[in-house]
Design goal:
- With 62 residues, the chain is mainly α.
- Helices cover 35% and strands 0% of the residues.
- The protein has one helix and no strands.
- It is elongated, with a radius of gyration of 25 Å.
- The mean pLDDT is 77.
């Protein structure tokens, strides 16, 4: 009985520590600025051939 209680406590402690460690990942602050200037975004150098729009499996749900 005591061994199972210790094992359960240890397991819960490890899960709690892992969840706290993973929730702290990331940076606090503003987002990074884009690498390309706004005037050059969404511009194509050459016209790309148009691809036919094929339906997606989950389209009816959207």
């Amino acid at each position: 009985m005591v061994n199972s209680l210790k094992r359960t406590t240890l397991t819960l402690s490890l899960v709690l520590a892992a969840s706290l460690a993973l929730s702290a990942c990331g940076r606090k602050g503003d987002l990074d600025p884009p690498s390309t200037p706004v005037s050059q975004q969404n511009q194509r150098g050459a016209e790309a051939p148009a691809t036919p729009d094929s339906p997606f499996l989950l389209d009816p749900l959207l």
